């Protein structure tokens, strides 16, 4: 059940005593919960009318605390429920009318890293998506998906469809495409991810083969922890490399 975001209609206006924030400050506030969010993503959500920050006389965006709360809500609805922007917009409008909104419960990437117990995590993340469901959730075309599959960035698992993470992958590939990065450019990232997964498997495979159920459960927890650390290390290495090259 979702609560109505504070601010209501005209959510871009700052309330009494509400200090306006730059887009960079908003990014830093969101990054703890949404490490993948970018300034480009925030601007895209603004262009789609999901948040309406005010503008300074010189034209700079000025976000209120209510704007940040609204952005966080939009990002959660995308991450946790795989909702397309059209549906998110409808949900927000319903909330502003004071209606209660019930969202579908689905497995998420965050659950893999935040310690959902083994059986529950497996049950939630085992959900598969059909092709049409993936296209709708990721808001991409059939042609785009087919091209990404031809480069090995996404793949259906036989007749069982796509795993839940395919939505995240599709959205990120589409987002990178807006900057001119084509699928052929992203194959190196796919190969790097597969190498990282191989390293994690080397560590946890002996634990998974153990007869003791507690040891096998520990293997799953270790997998989640190692995956989270690998993601953070990759992000830090990219930032470090860019820092060296741009200075």
Structural write-up:
By secondary structure, this protein is mainly α. The chain is built from 11 helices and 4 strands, in the order ααββααααβααβααα. It has helices at residues 23-31, 39-47, 65-81, 85-96, 109-113, 118-125, 131-138, 142-150, 165-177, 183-208, 213-245; strands at residues 54-55, 61-62, 128-129, 162-163. The strands form 2 sheets. It has a two-stranded antiparallel ribbon with strand order 1-2. A two-stranded antiparallel ribbon has the order 3-4. A hairpin with a 5-residue loop joins strand 1 (54-55) and strand 2 (61-62). The longest helix has 33 residues, at 213-245. The relative contact order is 0.09. Mean pLDDT is 80; it is low at 12-17 and 106-125.
């Amino acid at each position: 059940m979702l609560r109505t975001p504070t601010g209501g209609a005209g959510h871009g206006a700052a309330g009494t005593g509400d200090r306006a924030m730059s887009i960079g400050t908003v990014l830093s506030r969101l990054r703890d919960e949404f490490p993948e969010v970018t300034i480009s993503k925030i601007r895209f959500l603004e262009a789609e009318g999901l948040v309406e920050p005010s503008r300074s006389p010189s034209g700079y965006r000025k976000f209120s605390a209510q704007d940040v709360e609204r952005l966080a809500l939009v990002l959660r609805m995308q991450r946790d429920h795989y909702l397309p922007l059209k549906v998110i917009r409808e949900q927000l409008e319903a909330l502003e009318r004071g209606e209660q909104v019930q969202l579908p419960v689905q497995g998420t990437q965050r659950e893999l890293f935040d310690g959902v117990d083994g059986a529950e995590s497996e049950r939630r993340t085992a959900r598969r998506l059909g092709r049409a469901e993936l296209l709708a959730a990721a808001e991409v075309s059939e042609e785009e998906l087919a091209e990404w599959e031809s480069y090995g960035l996404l793949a259906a698992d036989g007749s069982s469809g796509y795993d839940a993470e395919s939505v995240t992958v599709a959205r990120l590939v589409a987002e990178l495409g807006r900057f001119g990065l084509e699928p052929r450019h992203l194959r190196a990232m796919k190969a790097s991810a597969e190498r990282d997964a191989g390293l994690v498997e080397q560590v946890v495979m002996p634990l998974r083969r153990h007869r003791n159920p507690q040891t096998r459960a520990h293997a799953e927890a270790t997998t989640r922890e190692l995956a989270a650390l690998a993601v953070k290390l990759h992000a830090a290495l990219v930032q470090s490399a860019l820092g060296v090259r741009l200075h």
